[in-house]
Specification:
By secondary structure, the chain is of the alpha+beta class. The chain folds into 3 domains: 149 residues, Jelly Rolls (Sandwich); 44 residues; 60 residues, Arc Repressor Mutant, subunit A, CATH 1.10.10. Helix content is 44%, strand content 20%. Helix 7 packs across helix 8. The longest helix has 18 residues.
């Protein structure tokens, strides 16, 4: 068995969470409990475990969600073993998003729900390598609501606060290079940060964090069109490093910055 802890980015008001990357071959976990949600993705092989009175199996492409305090074990389904990546998310973090609603319970422990899988990937993999605490806040929001949906718990319906959303949007437009956290948006708008996050998605179709990333990509494109180097464009648009710039650019455009510079799309734009 090999286990590699993955450092988590600082999470502002949140305590840092634990993430692990692990491979088991001819080894097993004895029955145990966590006081956190276990959010895990099987990367290769088949993970077998006893949970709530039944044997479960987690395969690549599925997500494993274990509720706090639920007894479980873990062992290899066959001699090939399995590898997985996991994040351990405290219920207090989930409650910060849900605001007093009952904690969601994904009954079977393993799910093929596309929304839940996408949210788990963002929490376990995508934001693990992102030093921006806002990336964790964004992934946490998506995960909490995806678990809520998968558990069949209805979200509260309310009219979105358009004034607060537009004020938050204006603030983000002014903070492209330096960045902004939900707590800053809360201060600027006077609206609870998680409610503001819900309303922002409802009215503008994306989260405050991703809206900021799109504006950074737009700025980087403009700098590149003006002749900036990739390094200078990344720095000038507020990206932490070249790796962060490349990942975010590709998610927004579908091409790496280098490929975009060589593309017909770039040449068409600058004509």
């Amino acid at each position: 068995m090999t286990s590699s802890p993955i450092p988590s980015p600082a999470a502002g008001a949140f305590d840092p969470i634990e993430r692990v990357e692990n491979r088991l071959v001819r080894a097993a976990f004895s029955p145990h409990r966590h006081d956190t949600y276990t959010v895990a993705l099987t990367m290769a092989g088949v993970q077998a475990f006893n949970y709530r009175g039944s044997m479960r199996h987690s395969l690549p492409g599925q997500v494993l969600i274990l509720h706090p305090e639920e007894l479980h074990d873990g062992h290899c389904h066959d001699e090939a073993g399995f590898s997985y990546r996991a994040a351990y998310v405290p219920p207090t973090h989930v409650q910060a998003v849900l605001g007093g609603a009952a904690l969601p319970f994904v009954v079977n422990g393993v799910s093929t729900n596309p929304g839940l899988i996408a949210a788990a990937c963002a929490m376990v993999i995508d934001c693990a390598g992102d030093a921006d605490p806002a990336a964790y806040e964004d992934a946490l929001y998506d995960l909490a609501n995806a678990m809520n949906d998968a558990a069949g718990q209805a979200a509260k319906v309310r009219i979105a606060d358009r004034t607060a959303v537009m004020r938050a949007r204006e603030f983000l437009e002014s903070a492209v290079v330096f960045g902004a956290r939900l707590e800053q948006l809360e201060h600027e708008t006077g609206c609870d940060r998680w409610q503001l996050s819900r309303d922002f998605r409802a009215l503008l179709g994306t989260s405050p964090y991703r809206y900021l990333q799109y504006r950074r990509v737009d700025l980087a494109k403009r700098l590149l069109r003006e002749g900036a180097t990739l390094v200078d464009a990344a720095h000038g648009a507020g990206f932490a490093d070249q790796s962060h710039f490349g990942r975010t650019f590709r998610k927004a455009v579908g091409l790496t910055p280098k490929a975009w510079l060589r593309s017909d799309l770039f040449r068409t734009i600058i004509l």
